[in-house]
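Lecture 7 notes: from sequence to structure.

We start with a single chain of 489 residues. Read the sequence below before looking at the structure.
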Amino acid sequence: MSPNCIAVARVSAGYPCAAPFDPGEAFPEFRKGTCSESGENPVFRGVQECLHLVGLDMERFGRADWNPLGRWIKPGMTVLLKPNWVKLRHPRDPEGWRYTITHPSLIRAVAEYVAIALKGQGKIIVGDGPQTDSSFGEIVTNTGMDRVAEHFRERGLDFSLVDFRRERWDEEGGVIVAKHALPGDPQGYVAFDLASMSHFSGHRGEGRYYGAFYDEAELNTHHSEGRHEYLLSGTAIKADVVINLPKLKTHKKTGVTLNLKNLVGINGDKNWLPHHTAGDPTNGGDQFPGPSLKRTVERRGGQILRRVAAAVPGLGPRILRGARGLGKGYFGDTEEVVRSGNWHGNDTTWRMALDLNTCLLYGQADGSLSASRTPKPYLSFVDGVLGGEGNGPLNPDPVSCGVVLFGSDPAAVDVACAWLMGFDPERLPIIREAFAPSALPLSRGSWRDVQLISNHPAWCGPIEGVPLKECFHIRPHFGWVGAVERLEG
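Now the structure, written as tokens:
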């Protein structure tokens, strides 16, 4: 299987309803009794079809001993499955989680093939670091993922669910009012300094980065004077194989949130992650698209209020919350007005996301980076059964795509996803720059080398041979409209 060969399985655009999401038909490779009596499961069929399309273990396909992931996964290994579990609650739709986060039916199907490869020896870990105000327990329980975990444990498999975060925050009106300590990753955390190997090396934003908390000084200590530091989940770094399970979805800061962006969830402290650079392009920033008196007042006033919120617990957040409520009418709603780097000119977030991918591929448990060792197997299955368009990642609208994608090069998988979404990978820095030459490369060759193989004939062949009329025409986030779409002809 070539790394630039991506499987795209077309399936019906719907998820099975009953946890633990058993297959809707008999598969020779699975033990008897796993077939559901409650209806179809197109996700299981999509995962199997992807593995079959790329020809894995073909001599045994259709037999009980078919082991398609066996070339990467051996008995005794630890395998991390990394879904996109950013947040359960959609602001407008109680069922919106189905097109916002990775559906557990995909996790179940992929885990079955991992279990085949492990042959009863090893560990399967499903782990993520959701948005800081999210409840990991609610995600697990309300989606049926607890039933999936129970299914594997009843079979005697070592199957665990891990919240990688060290803290959960309470928010009111978009303002952090309290922090709660969490158990954290049982494997601890590993700090990396990418230094000159960082995608921030030479960037003009030093000292002006903004992350996930009001204390900008803390974030900028990790990205200054040649340092570019990240704190990563020990589980992710120590795992033998990582399988990324992102959602097919738009994103306000990077255009899309697929494999490369999904690794934000393996960090241990979100305030080590730059999300935008204060200012506008005239002074090296990307917080706003351009200069104006109104935006200058908003930026400087916001900085002062955030510092007050960080320095004066209790009163400070209340002052900030009140100011935000008053300012919304004058400065505009974030769902309608570009701010905080939520536009195609964001030159910060893609760098952070690619740095995290570098740490995962080349990072060692002692915090060092090794270019001499072969990177760990890093695979991808994408949940595109229901995708998200418009104001992603947290407030998307649903789009019925009916696809599952698979590949052994997550950056190449992102190329395939973006193309089928109707976007131009060259206009998405998070994808384009993943193919840039580097001493620690994230992918090889050019994104234009990607080849598709599919059960849908129009999606077979070189990526650029798939015409726009055969794609989904997904609507970008409003800050990316006109800047990311493919221009055919």
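DSSP finds twelve helices and 17 strands in the chain. Keep this in mind for problem set 3.
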